[in-house]
Design brief:
- The structure holds two protein chains of two kinds.
- By secondary structure, chain A is mainly α.
- Chain A is about 75% helix and about 0% strand.
- Chain A contains 13 helices and two strands, in the order αββαααααααααααα.
- In chain B, helix 1 (about 5-35) packs across helix 12.
- Classes of the chains: A mainly alpha, B mainly alpha.
Chain lengths: ~290, ~270
């Protein structure tokens, strides 16, 4: 029984959120757009002027740009693949009857609560350090040469760390989704003689599709913006081997003071994120309607 | 009918799950163990039994004044969560109880603001914060984290509020309750659990946010994310100290996280998976 009065009140209650979010989104973005057409250097303002698409041309012609785009995609896709496939397998395992299930869940979910700089530094120093890390200890035990992870496999090492942070999230979501699967359906399939594989393909996987969609959506938002993990481990190097798009933009702005180019890069990042968002939001919108 | 499960099956599953779980947890476990070693022990090779010294903890406090970033983290994460709730509760409330044709679009738009890469607005934010005198200030970071997490807070609250049955409102209205009476006596008690879960999850997210907290602070307002990042260039032997600082930085949130697993799934999937 909504009256006109309650409708007016409802709008008033909604207004602060919408207004704050709108301002927060539009003002900085407008600044970025404006700077992306300027030559602007806060340390050397003499040459500041409007240069049209010059910054975009400079950004595109920078060889670092393509490696940054490529690294961003490799990072996002690899981590998604590891966490979704690993998450499904782990969820299936944790869904089995066992002793101490609650405690196992707590152990598995824990990495998700570790702040990114801690996760990255712990992996860098405690696990992957070529002198004192656990992997070096293991290598020496077998009489092998320890691997210098961040020098030899910089991007792969970062993928490993980020995947470790997000695997628990995927597992938890998929396990929750799995547990809502109707037990009777499973039994009926079993009685009809469906084996594990066909039960998985025709029953479990379709049931998990919504969970998988959500995992991909949420993770993509965060994975496109990976920053702290790179900052405290490789700092983008060696060369640009582990620089992703956010990190390149940060370098241009905060280290080289090329604000115009950084802004052009920022706009490109926004466009990329929006392309991804468009497809993902459609998928989620569809899934939410069900 | 419960499925009969063979003991063998259960034993195999238990062993498998425990091995995998311990592997995943190992980096955290090893950090906690190392934090109770001395620096020379920490680099002396793989060893799971520390000498249980707390000297690293004492040093982290003495040398780096650990308590200050810790306090900053508490103030910033709790503060931003409270501000976000004050703005989001009315919004989620109105969308859940008087939805319009545009409600779904507004929710989707809010979510889409999360898609904007933070780095794209780093420089404008930096100069806006500088000109407003908010650089390296706790209040500035609170505002920033409030805005970042607002869409998730609105969404979470919305999914909780939507489950409060509307009929209960009509019943109370029949009994002659005023609008405020309705909100205070009928809806608030039903909404509190949802608000509490949202609060818990948002504190976790704010505590772990590691872009703006690092870039917009230097010394005064630096929370634990920025503090820990300063360990990225090692000075001498620091493995045990790094472990102690890391353990302290993650312990409170780890414990909160263990208690909020269910809410986490619900909150971060915007109610799509429960």
């Amino acid at each position: 029984m909504a009256t006109r009065q309650t409708h007016g009140l409802a709008r008033l209650m909604l207004a602060p959120s919408v207004i704050f979010l709108f301002i927060w989104m539009i003002v900085p973005l407008a600044f970025t757009l404006w700077f992306s057409f300027q030559q602007y250097n806060p340390l050397n303002p003499i040459n500041d002027r409007f240069i049209g698409f010059g910054n975009y041309a400079l950004f595109f012609s920078n060889p670092a740009f393509f490696s940054a785009i490529l690294n961003t995609l490799i990072l996002v896709v690899s981590v998604l693949a590891i966490t979704v496939i690993g998450g499904i397998m782990l969820a299936l395992l944790l869904d089995q009857p066992m002793w101490g299930q609650g405690f196992v869940r707590i152990l598995v979910i824990s990495p998700f609560f570790v702040m990114p700089p801690v996760a990255a530094l712990v992996w860098k120093n405690m696990i992957m350090h070529p002198g004192y890390g656990v992997t070096a200890d293991i290598a020496r035990f077998f009489g092998l040469q320890p691997i210098d992870w961040f020098a030899q496999w910089p991007l792969f090492s970062i993928i490993l760390i980020v995947a470790w942070q997000w695997l628990p999230f995927a597992t938890l979501i998929l396990l929750t989704s799995l547990q809502s699967l109707d037990g009777e359906q499973k039994e009926a399939a079993e009685m009809d003689g469906a084996g594990f594989v066909s039960r998985f393909i025709y029953l479990t996987l379709p049931h998990l599709s919504r969970g998988i969609t959500v995992v991909i959506l949420i993770q993509t938002i965060f994975l496109l913006a990976v920053y702290a993990e790179i900052l405290v481990t490789t700092n983008g190097g060696p060369g640009y081997a582990s620089t992703n798009l956010p990190f390149l933009v940060y370098q241009k702005a905060s280290l080289e003071f090329k604000i115009g180019q950084a802004s052009a890069g920022g706009i490109i990042a926004v466009i990329l994120a929006n392309i991804v968002a468009f497809f993902l939001m459609r998928a989620v919108g569809k899934n939410l309607d069900k | 009918m419960a499925r009969a499960v063979s003991t063998e099956h259960k034993i195999v599953a238990t062993i498998g799950a425990w091995i995998v779980a311990l592997l995943i947890f190992f980096p955290i476990l090893y950090t906690i163990i190392t934090s109770f070693k001395s620096e020379t022990e920490a680099i002396a090779g793989f060893n799971l039994i520390p000498s249980f010294t707390t000297e690293s903890y004492a040093e982290v406090q003495d040398q780096y004044n650990y308590f200050k970033p810790f306090l900053n983290s508490v103030l910033i994460s709790v503060g931003s969560t409270v501000i976000a709730l004050l703005i989001a509760v009315p919004a989620a409330w109105s969308m859940a109880f008087s939805p319009t044709r545009r409600t779904k679009d507004i929710l989707m738009w809010m979510l889409s603001t999360k898609m904007m890469p933070a780095v794209a607005v780093l420089f404008p934010m930096y100069i806006i914060f500088r000109d407003l005198g908010l650089l390296d200030s706790r209040f500035g970071l609170m505002v920033m984290l409030t805005m970042i997490n607002l869409p998730i807070v609105v969404w979470m609250l919305y999914t909780y509020f939507r489950e409060i049955p509307g009929e209960i409102l009509e019943a109370s209205r029949m009994d002659g309750a005023s609008l405020w009476g309705e909100i205070w006596y009928v809806l608030t008690p039903m909404a509190v659990p949802g608000i509490a879960s949202t609060m818990l999850l948002n504190i976790i997210l704010a505590w772990n946010e590691a872009f703006w907290t690092i870039r917009l602070t230097t010394t005064e307002a630096a929370p634990l994310t920025a503090f820990i990042s300063s360990f990225s260039s090692p000075q001498g032997l620091f493995w045990a100290k790094l472990s102690a600082a890391s353990t302290l930085a993650i312990a409170p949130i780890l414990i909160m996280g263990w208690f909020s697993q269910k809410q986490l799934v619900r909150g971060l999937t915007f109610g799509a998976v429960k």
